[in-house]
């Protein structure tokens, strides 16, 4: 199992770093990473729909795909539009107050765009169920499943895009590194020292010792990334509490994915990735960590 994970993880890490480097060199942010991200979200969407189907829930697939991917595209488009407007603006903001006002204007516009897209996705879901309606029964639960997927996968994944487009690649790569080091630490320490089960009904292999080890690994990864990237002058409370917050939210995201899988009687979301399972097994921790990372970088990081 460990050998399979390493065989997949090492080339994946280098491939992601290469894409990130190319993306950073081009004038439009996200022009390389965004297609890759949309493919990943599409695969996760399929895996979630398959899990729902295993549990007897059948939201209209086309509407879920459309609403989820449209939300991500809308978020990226708004960010690109804002960056372009700033670049061609005849008078760039000079003072810190002016910069803050511009930033909040942009944040409000991005939030409005995402919420309007989410509302549009709900309308699409209703329209899809109206189109295929034949007889009473199952419509409400299928609508609930579609809206849940758009909120869970579409809305929350927008924070990954916002983190990259607002603060750059380094905060995004830092978040990913912390989440994955938390996973690696929990897996390693849990296998060696694990004795007490953390959540036996949801994830039988997770242990309290592994969870503590994961947090230590995550905080170390946060310190290392802040030192390497010289982010916010590497103030200790920045890397320590950021690593702690991302480790906890990432672990909750992992348990949230396990909750969905256990509820429908599945161990993995799919067998697509050797040693890991499916794309959901890789993304579930990032989905819940991203809003925390964006919030922390916006309100809590000492500049």
If you had to describe this structure to a student in words, what would you say it looks like?
It is a single chain. The protein is mostly helical and 303 residues long. The protein folds into 2 domains: 27-167, no CATH class; 169-303, no CATH class. It is built from 9 helices and 2 strands; from the N terminus they run H-H-H-H-H-H-E-E-H-H-H. The chain has a two-stranded antiparallel sheet with strand order 1-2. Helix 3 runs parallel beside helix 5 (139-167), helix 6 (169-193) packs antiparallel against helix 7 (208-229) and helix 6 packs across helix 8 (236-263). It is globular. The model has no long low-confidence stretch (mean pLDDT 84).
Describe the secondary structure blueprint for this structure.
Elements: H1 2-25, H2 33-54, H3 61-88, H4 96-132, H5 139-167, H6 169-193, E1 197-199, E2 203-207, H7 208-229, H8 236-263, H9 279-300
Antiparallel strand pairs: 1-2
Helical percent range?
over 70%
Distance between the termini: 42 Å
Task: Write down the oligomeric state.
Answer: single chain
Shape: globular
Structure at a glance:
This protein has 303 residues and is mostly helical. 78% of the residues lie in helices and 3% in strands. It folds into two domains: 27-167, no CATH class; 169-303, no CATH class.
Notable traits:
single chain; 303 residues; mainly alpha; 9 helices; 78% helix
